[in-house]
């Protein structure tokens, strides 16, 4: 993906790493090694592997911006979601460390941490209970829109955020405030 972008456009200016799996709430002692491996492979290893290729291409260009999508759960613990929580905390640790390493090379790396966002996945998971849940999830009392997360990502990729490095930006209606 990165190679093709560089081949077609000559460089890669920004990259967004947004993939993730959730888990069914379960007590930590009842989780399996397979559950751990599956969530870590997608939620953390996928980000790490993508960043390796993206950073190599950006080093050649002498600049770039990467935004990793974590979760509100990357900033706080969540009951019965230990593996998911660990994977999303891992994304933030990876983001911060890489941000320090590559900022001197002109590469800015940050993360966004969305709360409850109205997506097909959320619609399917919560169904008819979504309106009630949305009213209790954050001080704004509503579910977020995908466009609200996208606008934050676009800003972090833009020159308007040229002095922003290593942040974990909550986009959650104030839930972690």
TrEMBL record:
Protein name as it appears in the record: Uncharacterized protein
Keywords, ordered alphabetically: Oxidoreductase
One Pfam family hit: adh_short_C2
InterPro entries: NAD(P)-bd_dom_sf, Sc_DH/Rdtase_CS, SDR_fam
Ribonucleoprotein among keywords: no
Entry similarity comment: Belongs to the short-chain dehydrogenases/reductases (SDR) family.
PROSITE patterns: ADH_SHORT (PS00061)
Source organism of this protein record: Paraburkholderia terrae
